[in-house]
Amino acid sequence: MIAGRSALLVGGLGLAALALGWSHGAARAAAGTGTITGRVKFVGQAPPNAAIDMGEEPDCKAKYPTAPRAEVVTVNANGTLANVLVYVKAGLPADATYPAPTTPVVLDQNGCIYHPHVIGVVVNQPLEIRNSDPLLHNIKSLSKLNRPFNISQPGAGMKLTRTFATPEVPIPLECNVHGWMHAFLGVFAHPFFAVTGAEGTFTLSGLPPGTYTIATWQEKYGPQEATVTVGAGETKTVDVTYTGG
After folding, report:
1. CA dihedral 146, 147, 153, 158 (to 10 degrees)
2. Nearest CA to 113 among 53, 197, 177, 181?
3. Which numeric CATH code is attached to 20-43+69-91+198-245?
4. Where along the chain do its domains lie?
5. What's the pLDDT tens digit per position in 62-108?
6. Do 99-189 and 20-43+69-91+198-245 have the same topology in CATH?
7. Which of 134, 167, 186, 233 is the most buried (most CB within 10 A)?
């Protein structure tokens, strides 16, 4: 049990099928490797997410039957959290290297909201930023370890690509034109990370046998860590609990 407002519970898990948010690696451990899987739970009172007033942008407002809300704390119907970064923080072999995927991760500005709200990339993997709205967006990276940028995309269909040279969690992204637009990016030196989705689950597979520090990060509640040992062909679970109120 971790002190503070949240706790991490580590235990065994059968090979039950778990729905994923966004993750790298196959759902089943390859021969000679292990898998760490689990859920990010939420207990207590969820804080209300503010409604977004898009009155100044009628083209965006028209896309929503009711005013959309910010995604600061997204509690799923099953009592789990979406938009939580989960990743291996320590424990990988010191001499291991991981080539950057050539397939870009896409961040789309659509309806004056970033989609997805939380994303991850490997160092030097392309991040493709799109504007799907018929209006000006200005995306700004507030990175501290990587080179920041501030770039305008004045029309629909525009794309730009950026890469990141150094691991960093998180990098806030925002639009200077629309103050309600926020997203968060994690940059990793390896592919062992995931972002929880509508079921609040994650899977980190293909791990060499060893002892790992598994970290999570949530926009409002911040980081947590747990230590897990996984052997060849094993699946272990890390259930993370954030507490509201």
Report:
1. -60
2. 181
3. 2.60.40.1120
4. 20-43+69-91+198-245, 99-189
5. 999 999 999 999 999 999 999 999 999 999 999 999 999 999 999 99
6. yes
7. 186
Residue 96, token pair as written in the block = 């291991």
Tell me, what DSSP letter sits at residue 194? E
Q: What is the pLDDT of residues 225-243, one digit of tens each?
A: 999 999 999 999 999 999 9
Q: What is the pTM of this model?
A: 0.86
CA nearest to 144, candidates 120, 117, 166: 166
What is the separation, in whole angstroms, between the first and last Cα of the chain?
A: 19
Q: Where does the chain have alpha helices with state H?
A: 58-61
Homologous superfamily of 99-189: Cupredoxins -  blue copper proteins (2.60.40.420)
Q: Are strands 105-110 and 127-131 parallel, antiparallel or unpaired?
A: parallel
